[in-house]
Amino acid sequence: MITNPVRRVLRADVAARVMATALLGLPALLASESSRADPPMAPPTCALRLSVEVTPDVPDPTDPGFISSLLSNYPGYQLYLLGRVDDTHVNLQLQGPGPGERCRQVVDAMRNDGRVASIDVS
Description:
This protein is of the alpha+beta class. The protein has 3 helices and 4 strands.
């Protein structure tokens, strides 16, 4: 049977070996983690603020389902709710990969949606 002083020495020895192994592996771990980092996201080339007036039959123009449905044919573009003005007006941010002509096409398609009365771009 191992006595308490010997047990403490054995535990200290094991702890020292574990710590040494961990410290030796730390630089390799840090190097591998930095190489796996996601690349920084590029800023969107299309970013427009929109004041959108919807028709009175839209129950809630701030509903995320309604807002995302305005972009059904334009993957890669997103609309963000900036605020609700009243029951038929919301302020949105359109963001996407661009180019500018494609952004205008997205806004034009939204204008053609039967639930949208008007869109002002600022």
